[in-house]
Design brief:
The structure is a homodimer. Chain A is an all-alpha fold. Chain A has one domain: Farnesyl Diphosphate Synthase (Orthogonal Bundle), CATH 1.10.600.10. Chain A is 73% helix and 1% strand. In chain A, strands 1-2 form a two-stranded antiparallel ribbon. In chain A, helix 3 packs across helix 9 and helix 13 packs antiparallel against helix 14. The longest helix of chain A is centred in the C-terminal third of the chain and has 28 residues. The mean pLDDT of chain A is 92. Chains A and B meet through helix 2, helix 6, helix 7 and helix 8 of A and helix 2, helix 6, helix 7 and helix 8 of B.
Chain lengths: 288, 288
């Protein structure tokens, strides 16, 4: 199947599941959570998990869908908190006012908190063997917590931003490890062995780095209408990005090189993993 | 053993474990997390879990300590976020500047996030059977998330605050369910059956309601030095409390009545649960 069609098909499955997990309720917290969760995200992380689960031989939606959707809950949590005035202070996200602009700061903090907590809770609903679920949650927390995404955001806020060595570390923590986990957890829930999980993890880190470099490039070259958020926000004087350090052309080569290295790993595993290669190419070549 | 001595002994065990789980590191996020986690909390929730685990026949620290300490991580997360300017806007907590006063708002949001996430991760380190761990995490997320503590805080922030029916609901969600879960999860990890778990849950809800009414009373009657946070903060015109609705004397009777009803349930289970009765009495009679 063509990658665009595959992504559209998986996205429909994810959307339907998300609607089931977070139905419309008459209270403000629920509305604030749904506002950001259903703001038109690409569902990349759940798609990666779903495709990886199937490539690893998994066959039961009830095992993987709660885990895949949890990734989107938690990704949405990071976006809401990152946009807060005390953080990146961004008024727009996915073409709409950001959560705190629509619901106020207090509610935005709580909507993020609830998506994080309920996301973790969603993982426990997987019907996979309990020791797989336990391990998935353990790695999920490690990916997101004080040594992972949250640390990346803290470094981004307060770190020595003019040092390019930090740029790679922040991108690794904020984005690449989460992308890598999304791929790895699909195979983990399907029961893959440690050796395969580790190779998938490294391929995922490379794909995730390429994805983030591409994000930096888009941020530099797009208008707000195309991007749905305020462009240039990530590349103002106080913030390091790949184009600001390496220039546009070299950044494009770096992104392509990350994707190539990820591709080689997926190829070495076997042709069941071809959809992951196509997804990796999409991650570094997308236009928004 | 006398309850004060028992609590002191358990508290030492918890403190040592917390130090192991969150060692001192040279970065700001770690410092912000430790600042609030080691601010002199009473460790009530972990103590309840530990005592309940032992009453239910549990004998292995490695099963219960990660879960017990996770309760303190997550409790600390709720305090940090509740104190934020966009929420209750409190400058003091446990006799010190609140987290955002010491580290700035952005870092306080992140320190809370990391304590929440790593708290969930800590639960996965329990050596109890994986299906117990999975269930503990499922109930933990339900207790904390969009139908639990976070919902209580959202209602507290934006709800119809002048309606006493809401007061009980908010107290239930913000405090009592978390106390109830702390007691229940100890027995759950020890392998107790559903019938016992449900009785413990109800006893815990009653004890937790008594605890919160006592908190309201202390807030009304204490100075900042005694309380360690700004008193009267919870009882200003915009906020409902038990004393503001029922008066001081009647509130004291309500707290005692909750404790009595919890006590009856613990008594009906058996004398192994006597320490929980003593703890319940402490919860509604403490002076800070």
């Amino acid at each position: 199947m063509e990658i665009v069609a595959l992504m559209a098909q998986k996205r429909r499955v994810i959307e339907a599941a998300l609607f089931d997990y977070l139905p419309d309720r008459e209270n403000l917290l629920n509305q604030a959570m749904r506002y950001s969760l259903f703001a038109g995200g690409k569902r990349l992380r759940p798609i990666l998990a779903l495709v990886s689960y199937e490539a690893a031989g998994g066959k039961e939606d009830e095992q993987i869908l709660p885990v895949a959707c949890a990734l989107e809950y938690v990704h949405t949590f990071t976006l809401i908190h990152d946009d807060l005035p005390a953080m990146d202070d961004d008024d727009f996200r996915r073409g709409k006012p950001s959560n705190h602009k629509a619901f106020g700061e207090g509610m935005a903090v709580l909507a993020g908190d609830a998506l994080m907590i309920d996301g973790m809770g969603l993982v426990t609903q997987s019907t996979a063997p309990p020791h797989f679920v336990q391990r998935a949650l353990q790695e999920f927390a490690r990916t997101l917590g004080a040594e992972g995404v949250t640390k990346g955001q803290a470094d981004d806020l307060y770190g020595e931003r003019r040092d390019p060595r930090f740029l790679r570390k922040i991108h690794l923590r904020k984005t690449a490890l989460f992308i890598a986990f999304s791929i790895r957890v699909g195979a983990l829930i399907a029961g893959s062995n440690d050796r395969l999980l580790d190779r998938l993890f490294w391929a995922g880190v490379l794909a995730g780095m390429g994805f983030q470099v591409c994000d930096d490039i888009l941020d530099e070259t797009s208008s707000r209408e195309e991007l749905g958020k305020t462009p240039g926000k990530d590349s103002d004087a106080s913030k390091l990005t790949y184009p600001s350090v390496y220039g546009l052309k070299r950044s494009q080569r770096i992104a392509a090189s990350y994707a190539d290295r990820a591709t080689k790993i997926f190829q070495s595993i076997g042709e069941d993993w071809n959809p992951l290669i196509a997804l990796t190419r999409y991650l570094v070549k997308r236009r928004k």
